[in-house]
Amino acid sequence: MARIIAVGEAGFHIRLEELKPLSAHPGGLILNTAVELSRMEHQVSMATEIGSDVLGHKIIDILKKEGVDTYSVELSLDGTTPTTLEFVDTKTDEIIQQLRYDNFENCTEGFDIIWPTIETGDTIIFGGFLSISMRVRKRLWQFLTYAKERKANLIYLPGYNPVRMMRVTKVMPLIFENLEIADIVITTTDHLQFIFGKTDTAKAYKDNLEFYVNDFFNIGDEVIDYHAHGGQHERIPRISSMKLPEALAWLIDNKILSKSTD
Q1: 50-66 core/surface letters (b: 16 or more CB in 10 A; e: else)
Q2: How, if at all, do strands 20-27 and 11-17 pair?
Q3: CB–CB of 25/38 below 8 Å?
Q4: Distance from C-alpha of 67 to C-alpha of 113, rounded to nearest angstrom
Q5: Domain that holds residue 79
Q6: Angstrom distance (rounded) from CA 129 to CA 173
Q7: pLDDT tens-digit profile of 148-190?
Q8: What does DSSP assign to residue 40?
Q9: Mutual orientation of helices 29-39 and 244-251 as an angle, nearest 10°?
């Protein structure tokens, strides 16, 4: 059975109304997508870096409970598990402010994870801030290059967050490198706007993505748009009640992995 290897940030998110804690849970788009894919009975491994602290060990426990392999999760002594405070409007459940505490960004070394083995037909999901961090770039790029040589399928989720880095122009060369090595790119409309300044998926594909990848999906509020070479375009209804990790996992399971096994 082909495996899914998810490479991205992990941390702990605490939701608050003013200063009153509402909930606490592991965070990171790729991590939560990995959990959703495991619930769909895929064989999933997580590759990331967290602190060897109470929160880090809690994340390990939760991933294991969800059936996600944690062999490639590094418990680092050089940093603490990233923590994000999310202040929410309880009437709309929307996040109105985020505060992130992450001393990994100040480390000059690290990311000494033990990479999993790669077999032909495996799927690598990578992206987010980890994929544009110079601190981990060399080791990550070596892994992605090796996975490509092993004929794994590479899915890139840019997931750009302007709260982490306001000037996207500083990291565009790394984003384009990621696009070039990827087989499939998945964005949201917000990410598309942040990175390329466009919400029109057809224009974004033609102007910014078509040169690099054949298969492009964009997850909107109501529709998932698919674009490919030759003017192919499909509009896939999105179940509005699905949160983003659920929508990503559904898309990968139903429209990407199922296609690769046909």
Answers
A1: bbeeebbebbbeebeeb
A2: antiparallel
A3: no
A4: 20
A5: 3-260
A6: 14
A7: 999 999 999 998 666 666 577 888 999 999 999 999 999 999 9
A8: T
A9: 60
Tokens coding 259: 């296609």
CA nearest to 45, candidates 1, 94, 99: 1
Which residues, listed in sequence order, are joined to residue 227 by a DSSP beta bridge?
216, 233
Which tokens belong to 225?
């748009």
Which phi-psi region, left, alpha or beta, contains residue 123 (left: φ > 0; alpha: ψ -120 to 50)? Answer: beta
Tokens of 137: 């770039």
CATH of the domain at 182: 3.40.1190.20
Residue among 126, 188, 125 at smallest CA distance from 161:
188
How many domains does one find in the chain? 1
pTM of the model as a whole: 0.92
Helix (H) or strand (E) holding 156: strand 153-157
Angstrom distance (rounded) from CA 13 to CA 27: 5
* Parallel/antiparallel/unpaired status of strands 232-237 and 20-27: unpaired
